Structures
1.
Amino acid sequence: MGYKRTRRAPRFCHRLPETSPLASAKGWSNIFASSGTGMTSTTREGTRQKFGAFEVDVRASELLKGGKKVKVQLQPMQVLAALLEQPGEIVTREELRKRIWPEDTFVDFEHGLNTAIKKLRQALGDRPSKSRYIETLPRRGYRFLAEVEASENKAGLKPAVSSRLEGKMFELVAEEGAGCVVAPADEKAFEEWQRLRRLKDDVGVSMMIAEKRLLLLEPGNQLRLLAVERNPGLCEVRILEGEHYGKTALVPKKALRANPKQPK
């Protein structure tokens, strides 16, 4: 289900560059150097939510129970994230279609949504006939029933800036002469990357790439913008093509080009 185009990244994105990995990231140094703050000032609030015995990390698209990760595919997690944004309220099937299955996605939406709901209920141990979490409103949509609480974040974190660009599709572009766009997977990865750059520790950076904490993204890949961070140079995106399909990362705003096939 979802995006079927899964172009593999070119060979240079699977192997570490012969030169320093930092050479591929020259655009990032300027963006971050001018920010004046570390990543902790741009992290979104409310990315972790609790209900019952479960906790959801929205940024990482992870569901945990008792601190242990519950295996859930991407689309069921996207449905859960949409429901958690409006607990106790109806989220229509049409709203879910626009959010998760845009018009340029050629799939059977009805089957895809029904399958996503079924898998989500299985992960939550929920039953349609006696639901604790997800109520079905026939031919209308779904409602999240349980009380949702926000997990505590570190002090001093600031919310992202609300933007009309959120949810829209973009194409990734790289700076001239750069084969990839380097994207930290999360704020912790960014902080460590900054530290290693200050120390000129190219081996450490290479290890971060090998561990997928720094992602090498292929230009031309399709992305969905999730948030414009308070730092005007950064955006949180979901990757919709290539070897990192489904993951979230932070990319510079100037690396995003409007998708000409953008659903209206």
2.
Amino acid sequence: MAGLLRCAAQWSADAVQIRAAGLQNSAWSDRATAASGGAPKINKQEQKTVMTDFNRRNILAGGAAALAGTAALGETAQAQVGVTAIFPVAHATIPVVGLKEVFPVRRIYCIGRNYAAHAIERGSDPTREPPFFFQKPTDAIQVVAIDTVADHPYPSLTKNYHHEVELVAALKAGGTNIPVDKALDCVYGYALGLDMTRRDLQNAMGAEKKPWEIGKSFDHSAVLGPIHPVTKTGHFTKGAISLAVNGTVRQNSDLTKMIWNVAEQISKLSEAFELKAGDIIYSGTPENVGPVVKGDVLLCKLEGLPDMSIKIV
């Protein structure tokens, strides 16, 4: 503010000098005119009075204009500092076991066809296919509390709704081109998750060579339990993972059968995106994915984590 006032004062002073110079030139012109028989001369006392009155008026006017401009700039700056949203939008978070604080979610990444048997059942050759990733919106998250059976709504548009049980890694740090041997340093914790899929819509889009976001990215499609800090669980490089529907086991495998482990996934993903704290990664599902209908109860298991269960409603 002080700087703006100094600029305003300097501007006013410059303006006075310019106008005064103009008045002096006018006085000399009038004197010349009088000498040639024109208008009467202006004596020094009259010139001094005119100049004094002019200076006062010009300083007051210039100062007022400068202050008005300064006030306007001040109001603009104040308005920018006080920016608020036009309406509230909820931010996705995940509970952390043992803490009151929650994990804020920035992005959801998912890796496709990361178990050889699942890649084969989806029509791919796991020996030749590099990893590929897709994303879900953060508001697709449905958190399932430990020792509960959460109602999970059957989504619209589909008649072939599939389950995919997965290990989920939650990041506390990130970067680009992260080396594999440094990748696990980015992991904050792990959770058990379900990548729910409208398979008929995914297949239809795939057949037309169109993006199949509609089959993967919809409300409640990112189901998971609370996050367990890696300081409590260690890193998951092996362990049985399974899913049962109404007591019958459908998916049953081990984390060692992942084509790309968590560290490799993080490294590969960071080649395409700058990873950051708050990102979570669904690490792929084993074979025998299949359909569910209303009334079905799903029970997910991962060695080293509590079970997770939902009921399709």
3.
Amino acid sequence: MPDCLATPHKQGNPMKRLFASCVPALLIAVSTLAPAAPVKEVKTAMPAITIYHLEGRRSERIVWLMEELGLPYNLQFKRGDLAGSMAAIRAINPVVPMAPTVQYGDNQVLVESGAIIETILNRHAPGKLQPALDSPDYPYHLVWMHYAEGSLAARLFSDYRAWRAQPPKQRSPLVDSEAVVQFAEDYLAKHPWFGGEEFSSADIMMKFPLDVATSLNIVDVSQFPKVAAWKVKIEARPAYQRMLAKARPDGLIGKLPVLPEHAPSGPRAPLTIPK
């Protein structure tokens, strides 16, 4: 305890004398404290990982991730048989059978590719495939990790279903498929990867919905040259090629029908809000 707190003050205003005498002593004491040690990234032992897979679907992300990291995994699917593969998924995940479904160790069944990727990276590959937490690129990386499904895929599949039933005559005044892909195009005009300066798991997340956008004619592929150039880089990665060989050995099967037409390109009509 500083001496100022142990010494009685009998003259003048006792609170003022206490403040005047104690503050310098406390500041000195605080200034001599050892700085806090930096938080260390701890790699934990990885349990057995089994990826339940549907060919050409989002589960490719997890296979690709494991190939990029060089980590062991067990891949389960029935080659060329989407119904058979789905039956295997339903056997361990009957309430929400979806791909990817991952058995993580003996007792945990995981869904949602973004959450699976973050779990594997943060626990078993710290410092890999994501920018450092204090990097200027980290916020962008995290945005694209979540944008891939939360904004991009959600909008694309919503428009796809609506436009199959009734082909569009004009762009929506709200955020539409062209807008969500243009947002990615604009970013790639200034950055080489969705992780910023380096390839990251955000690029793994973004590949599937951007393929959906262009391959199903939801948007005009010619309008997005930066996305096209990024795909060329992505598909040249050795880990991506290994993923294709293992997870899509016969090419894309069970592909959704291509839209006969998408919304006309160009400016959107102004949004009219009723008064």
